Amino acid sequence: MVRAPCHPNPLRIRFVGFELDEANARLSSNGEAVALAPTPFTLLCVLARQPGLLLSKDALLDAVWGHRFVSESVLKTAISDLRTALGDTPRQPRFIETVSRRGYRFIATPSPTPLTPMSPSRAPEADAQPTPFVGRVASLSRLQRAWDQAQGGQRAVLWLAGEPGIGKTTLIEHFIAGLDGVTCARGHCVEHFGTGEPYLPVLEAIAGLCRVDPALPTLLRAVAPTWLFQLPWLSSAQERDALRHELAGVGPERMLREMGELLERYTEQRPLLLVTEDLHWSDRATIQLIDYIARRRGRIRLMWLASFRVAEVVALDHPLSSLRHELRLQRLCEEVVLDPFSETEIADYVAGRSLSLARDEAFVRALHDRTDGVPLFVSSLLSEVMEGSADDATVEARLANQAVPENLAAIIDHYIAKLAGEERDLLSAAAICRGDFRVETLALVLERDLASLAHACEALVRGRMWLTRSRSADSGDASALPYAFRHALLRQVLYDRTPLSLRVQLHRQVGVALERERSLGVPVAASELAMHFERARQPMTALRYYAEAAETALSHFSPASTLGLTQQALILLRQVPAGAERDALEITLATLQGVAAFQTLGVGHEAADAFGRAYSLLAGVPEHPMRGRLLHGFGYLLSLRGDYAQALAVAARAEALSSGSDDPLLMLAACVVYGEVFHLQGDTQAARGWIERALAIAGPLDIRASEIFAADAQVTLLGMLALELLRSGSLVQARSCLQRARARAQALRQPMTSLVAAWQEVLIEVRMDNTLRVAALADAMRALVDEHSLALGHAPCRWWRGWADARNGSPGDGYRRIRAAFEEHAGLGMRSGTSEVLGYAAEAMLLAGDCDTAKAELEEALRVADELGERVYLPQLFLLDAAIARAQGCPYASGVAVRRSVGEARAQGAPWLELLALVELCAQCDATDKERQALATLVEQLPEAEGTEPMKRARLLLQVAVPA
């Protein structure tokens, strides 16, 4: 290709805030350089040299391209790029006017500026940068528009897509460099060979921002404690322990909400550019966060710029693949796809190194053929052929003599072949590491002197081919990872070219080295160690680290990551011979899988199967350290599923193991499950006995929320005891227990504990018919659930609000709320307590005057109660049956139903419920003397019920029954 010759009189003019300096190849606006590729720059010079004069298309093609092998479309593209750089538009031009079908003219009025003579040492070619930035004008313009949009308060999510080596990072760097005083947070995803660490690139970005902005940690404490918990160096051990208790039981949704709030608060003071690179290696949690931020409403001065490789996203069915399409369809994001350099752009790039070579069409075309236009390899190959010689003819000959590689990997193979032995050993070991790496790690692996190895790494950095210094090296952190490959593709090809036997050995050596560094306090992720030992063919060691990584992900509110890690580990477990050690590992992995599945998928078969597998192996490893978590979790899950018989069997197992080992936590888990199940089965005396025993254990231990109990044990048990005391008619004691539970929950300020306290209280208020209090508690629970993303409370707070609405004059709306919440709850596999909720629905329909629907709901409730053996709400259901019969004009059927309620309450040992039923029976005027005497006896036996509405009604009925 022929380049336009340099003009003998270089142009230097000013026009409307711009300055054009042809000699120095510079266009500036108000003193700031404007990014403009060489070809559009030359076109601008040609136009500006003849202001006001129409230049035909042919004339411009001759002047700029020499009219060889170039169509008019290329001219249109260059004009478009030029207008973008100038901020001009074809409809209302200020600088370049289009004359339809003829050509273009420069319409601004230029004014000359004095030229500064250049010394020979400052000639343009000698002053050129070794790695000039060329092309990408349209892409830069789109990035700038997105940033302008973000500065104006409208969030901008922009994908930067392209293949390896296409220049994504270079474009990002150039874009950031052009922003004056921008606040930028950057993070990278790393290849993880499985499930990645949750939110890794975002945590890296936030951590980097905290280092330069001391106000951010304070804001994290205020609005994003779940994120503060992920950055332990920002808080003390005492603060982290308090956070651990506060955050127990919260779901991953809270992390999303908190990050949204954090970004909105932070960007009130300044716009923020958040960059996450290599998103094709991202974990699912990060993708979910991008989705949430993109869809979140409200003003926010944020631009989220993320880069990824299109081919890998599509081929691996990465969740990003569907998300990018969904967000684009909804106009919530923009995507910029980078293409390889054209011959023209390669010529512009070469011009930064040698103007004479840039004018040589054969050389440029050969360079394009050898690199496929991939900028990374254009730069590398050009540097290689020019190395050691300033003679352009020699450089051309060197390029002509090189073999033409068939693809990008072949180019890298060519470079690998030129490595010295020690260099290749160093880089092969570095390629085994994931992402950035420490020289100290390589020194341990290669058994080489640290100083000499650091010197070798610096030499490779200076060579500008293989290594670069990681940005984290400037963080001031002693454990920073200072080196990285210049491009991930370089590392991947070198890794693939390392013989398999050597790879296995190096993975083992790297794993051992990282273990040693970890013991000295260097942060090394367990998932990274698991990957190394899996590839080193040491499955037992790998499995231990997989278990640690899974538990870490769980504590970091990413149960989805825990599921991925445990699934991968359980596949690897097949390689391990049977035995006690394998069983112990499987118990750990399956228990963690069960907890994660419970949090993400509910109480369906995924969680039940995982817990069940671990439970079946426990007999062979009875002293397993995770047995308390397993037995409590499995027993609780079974009770939620309505599998009460199995739940009792698990509790009995925990009790037996506890008695043999004197483990109070294990015994406490047994007591809690026993108390819950016996309560649901309507055995008041047994439930109360187990609950009181559990309180005696929990009190001295002061067990708060922990890995075994999602909520504070004492608050949970006090609420459970209050329910049993109410059923027994000890209303004063019940209120006292509730008050203690509420006070402790308020003092602890732990969301899950607060939810449990409110849950237990609303159950009591429902049984006391306190409609206003139920409505207030339901609303408070809804606020708590929404604020802290407590998935377990989503449905209950809505059905209790529906119960209150039905009694407050809106039975139709109340019924719809109850049914919707019930369906959602049942859809998660939770059947516990459903007979009571269906009773709420029946009562709402009765209040609405729809006896047929009310009867249908009641019959479903009774069927569920019979199927599950769930008797706790049967006395109220029988009273409801009586009310429906009365409304239908069937007094006899009503009397039968009330007497069933009396008998059931008596059988359950629940005098309060028996009092309610006897009051209804006596009010129907067909009670026998024996039944009236039973009511009189209850009135005397329940002094703590004095003053309640049922007690007032009872005394009034008894007075009426006394003979005159």
Automatic annotation (TrEMBL):
GO CC terms of this entry: cytoplasm
InterPro entries linked to this entry: AAA_16 (IPR041664), OmpR/PhoB-type_DNA-bd (IPR001867), P-loop_NTPase (IPR027417), Sig_transdc_resp-reg_C-effctor (IPR016032), TPR-like_helical_dom_sf (IPR011990), WH-like_DNA-bd_sf (IPR036388)
Keyword ATP-binding: yes
SUPFAM superfamilies referenced in this protein's UniProt entry, alphabetically: C-terminal effector domain of the bipartite response regulators, P-loop containing nucleoside triphosphate hydrolases, TPR-like
Single GO MF descriptor: adenylate cyclase activity
GO terms under biological process: phosphorelay signal transduction system; regulation of DNA-templated transcription
Residue ranges of the region described as Disordered: 110-129
Keyword Nucleotide-binding in annotation: yes
Positions of the OmpR/PhoB-type domain: 8-108
DNA-binding region(s) in UniProt: 8-108
Assigned keywords, A-Z: ATP-binding, DNA-binding, Nucleotide-binding
PANTHER family per record: GUANYLATE CYCLASE DOMAIN-CONTAINING PROTEIN, TESTICULAR SOLUBLE ADENYLYL CYCLASE
Protein name: Adenylate cyclase / Guanylate cyclase
Organism per entry: Pseudomonas batumici
